Fold this sequence. Notes:
- The chain is α+β, with helices and mostly antiparallel strands.
- Helix content is 20%, strand content 27%.
- The chain contains eleven helices and 30 strands.
- Strands 1, 2, 3, 4, 5, 6, 7, 8, 11, 12 and 13 form an eleven-stranded mixed β-sheet that branches. Strands 19, 21, 22, 24, 27, 28 and 30 form a seven-stranded antiparallel β-sheet that branches.
- The longest helix has 26 residues, at 196-221.
- It is globular and about 70 Å long.
- It starts with a strand and ends with a strand.
Amino acid sequence: xxxxxxxxxxxxxxxxxxxxxxxxxxxxxxxxxxxxxxxxxxxxxxxxxxxxxxxxxxxxxxxxxxxxxxxxxxxxxxxxxxxxxxxxxxxxxxxxxxxxxxxxxxxxxxxxxxxxxxxxxxxxxxxxxxxxxxxxxxxxxxxxxxxxxxxxxxxxxxxxxxxxxxxxxxxxxxxxxxxxxxxxxxxxxxxxxxxxxxxxxxxxxxxxxxxxxxxxxxxxxxxxxxxxxxxxxxxxxxxxxxxxxxxxxxxxxxxxxxxxxxxxxxxxxxxxxxxxxxxxxxxxxxxxxxxxxxxxxxxxxxxxxxxxxxxxxxxxxxxxxxxxxxxxxxxxxxxxxxxxxxxxxxxxxxxxxxxxxxxxxxxxxxxxxxxxxxxxxxxxxxxxxxxxxxxxxxxxxxxxxxxxxxxxxxxxxxxxxxxxxxxxxxxxxxxxxxxxxxxxxxxxxxxxxxxxxxxxxxxxxxxxxxxxxxxxxxxxxxxxxxxxxxxxxxxxxxxxxxxxxxxxxxxxxxxxxxxxxxxxxxxxxxxxxxxxxxxxxxxxxxxxxxxxxxxxxxxxxxxxxxxxxxxxxxxxxxxxxx
Length: 578
């Protein structure tokens, strides 16, 4: 059984590699890996990190896993089966290193709960140096650089494994903002006259490339190179940034801001789009697959999707279906045919939905409990089949591009090929309707207190997971909290699943509690006494919670006096009462 090493970079655009045509970035190790690999230049990932990773780890379209964005929109449902559970029954050791979102960390679930034997995660934000590392043994703030620390951990595991087969996910946080690299990596770019952004971004990429070289060398020195399938990919397209602050424009948005001068350096192929969009610069990544003696190097022009990776690996590892765990049906299919024969092609459709810019399914902060209520005409969806890529733009406009002849998506062929356009439009709509009918995507995940499995003194409840917002309420999908609470009727509804009965105090922390209207706590619709109130903290209870699902709300009473400003709840803690 082959080992599997899956390397993922973060926000590295298609043009951020030497082997894809960039003569500024320095990626010698990845370039060498590309020369030794089957190279898929038309590999389609998701439009953001968590959509991509949820599909990668499940073999399913990210929308069906409960994911459509990041942060609060990026929580893979608990009933999904992730990649390690497909390999463990066949004797594999399974490890995860680096970035932990995208299915590996979900509220009360850990990578171990998802099936990994061991993990070494980077927490505390996108810290490129002095990160907090999270392992099954606990969390520790460390010295050093994140890319090097997680590589050290992976090399140690590979050396310990001997001949036992293993699956390792190496998930770098490079080159995700905010860019930060050692001076020895950044200074060569400065000396050549490049901006500080390029020096830091491309310095960090060179640092990551050196760590990939170390990792591949460790596989070689362990005598496992010929027994190891190595895959490399990025999770989505890049962002334009000026001084780490100014983001690039949405491509189909008016008015537009100009891209920074660095955009041409990072995007030498002049692809359009950015992270979040489903133009190709948002969802196109190189995919490399190396297996010495088994897979011949060279370009594979067949378009494949990230959801196809897991079914492919299962076929390559010859893991029979009777050893698969119970799981939902794959939406991806194996592309092993093209690994064996570079001229192979099939008729697969690849569907994507934008997570940012014009055409996103809901506005920032809004909830859509029922997908069937969304207007398809408002969405930006795409369907890729062979050389052709179909766009359904907001407002119902159709576009069709030949991606091999026109990778920058400039020459619309919809009028020239009306029958192909209409056929792809119908299939694209059917894919959306099929996913919407299952209705697994936009509802916020129900929260859970694992007080039987993991007894404790307190539990943090993700305030960014409301089931419903009522009144003039808002929230940020990733940072901040739930805000509003200024007017009568403002309300955030939640539900929490409790394993066994307990008595707790609810502690709401935030800002502006002295200026907004009084915030009440309702448990199953009944008000709970407030212990204390201040500008930054409201404490309610004690309240006895039964086992099972308990609905609760943070609300402004209908007969309350309006506040003078909004309040924002940033943190919600349930503290055990003795």
